């Protein structure tokens, strides 16, 4: 586990160096990453205490109550990189559509990472689902992403001072709990059952091939900065190494992970080579 945690630290450090290299407002970048880390701990720790749907392996070295410290380091990078990609796709602009797109992207990311991490024994779920991961678990991170990025987006669009970003510590947590409870009791509680692995693989391939086809034809893919895509490769490679070590005998999981990676390779191929476009001013974004 020490080697795994050191690998996580190296990946995060590499991301921060590359991401900050051409960032004109580095204090804001690091401030937001810190706020996401703290907010994600408040949200996840309270969810574990309140519902007991899952637990982390005790093999992790350092915990902050119920959550390993490494998880608090990793998730801000996942969320920030998704936000960068969707802003790049939208010509540097934010807005509601960009926030929702980033939340959907994190949903897809989580549905890759969760089954592989469960297979590797990094954490486990107490409810059934695809590859032992219930849909509510993946939705939780998508909900958190959407709410925390909505705070940052509103701060930018309204042109207010950075102190308002502290609302990211207050607003997402009750909203995430409310959305989780509404989703669970409004729908998922009544269809809570294991999902056949091969059915999941078939559906995943159908969806990902359709998304890949759209990406090939969509003119917006040309607006993506390749750097925003390539900077995510070390983290993706990390999970595929985990898959190779712990899931090499699980053919459905391998095919599932390959399918989810396909749209990323398509958009990487179509992306332009330049760096990120400058962010649009709050006046233009509004």
Protein model, in words:
With 286 residues, the protein is mostly helical. The protein has one domain (2-285). It contains 11 helices and 4 strands. It has helices at 2-21, 26-51, 69-89, 96-119, 135-158, 172-186, 197-217, 226-230, 233-246, 251-270, 282-285; strands at 54-56, 63-64, 67-68, 123-125. The strands form 2 sheets. Strands 1-4 form a two-stranded antiparallel ribbon. It has a two-stranded antiparallel ribbon with strand order 2-3. A hairpin with a 2-residue loop joins strand 2 and strand 3 (67-68). The radius of gyration is 18 Å and the shape is globular. It starts with a helix and ends with a helix. The model is unreliable at 274-286 (pLDDT under 50).
Keywords summarizing the entry:
mainly alpha, 286 residues, disordered C terminus, globular, two-stranded antiparallel ribbon, two-stranded antiparallel sheet, 11 helices
Topology of helices and strands:
Elements: H1 2-21, H2 26-51, E1 54-56, E2 63-64, E3 67-68, H3 69-89, H4 96-119, E4 123-125, H5 135-158, H6 172-186, H7 197-217, H8 226-230, H9 233-246, H10 251-270, H11 282-285
Antiparallel strand pairs: 1-4, 2-3
Helix pairs in contact: 1-3, 2-3, 2-6, 3-4, 4-5, 4-9, 4-10, 5-6, 7-10
């Amino acid at each position: 586990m020490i080697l795994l945690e050191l690998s996580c630290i190296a990946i995060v450090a590499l991301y921060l160096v590359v991401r900050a290299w051409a960032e004109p407002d580095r204090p804001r970048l690091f401030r937001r990453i810190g706020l996401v880390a703290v907010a994600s701990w408040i949200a996840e720790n309270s969810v574990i205490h309140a519902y007991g749907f899952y637990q982390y392996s005790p093999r992790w070295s350092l915990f902050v109550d119920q959550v390993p410290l490494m998880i608090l380091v990793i998730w801000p990078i996942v969320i920030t990189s998704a936000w960068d990609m969707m802003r790049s796709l939208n010509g540097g602009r934010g807005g509601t559509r960009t926030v929702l797109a980033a939340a959907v992207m994190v949903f897809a990311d989580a549905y890759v990472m969760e089954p592989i991490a469960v297979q590797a024994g990094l954490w486990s779920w107490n409810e059934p689902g695809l590859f032992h991961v219930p849909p509510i678990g993946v939705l939780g991170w998508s909900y958190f992403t959407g709410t925390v990025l909505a705070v940052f987006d509103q701060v930018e669009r309204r042109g207010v001072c950075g102190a308002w970003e502290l609302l990211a510590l207050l607003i997402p947590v009750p909203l995430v709990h409310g959305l989780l409870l509404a989703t669970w009791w409004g729908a998922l509680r009544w269809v809570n059952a294991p999902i056949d692995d091969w059915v999941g693989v078939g559906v995943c391939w159908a969806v990902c091939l359709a998304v890949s086809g759209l990406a090939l034809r969509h003119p917006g893919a040309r607006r993506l900065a390749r750097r925003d895509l390539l900077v995510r490769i070390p983290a993706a490679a990390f999970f595929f190494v985990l898959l190779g070590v712990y899931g090499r005998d699980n053919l459905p999981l391998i095919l599932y992970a390959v399918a989810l990676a396909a749209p990323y390779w398509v958009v990487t191929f179509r992306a332009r080579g330049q760096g990120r476009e400058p962010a649009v001013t709050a006046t233009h974004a509004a």
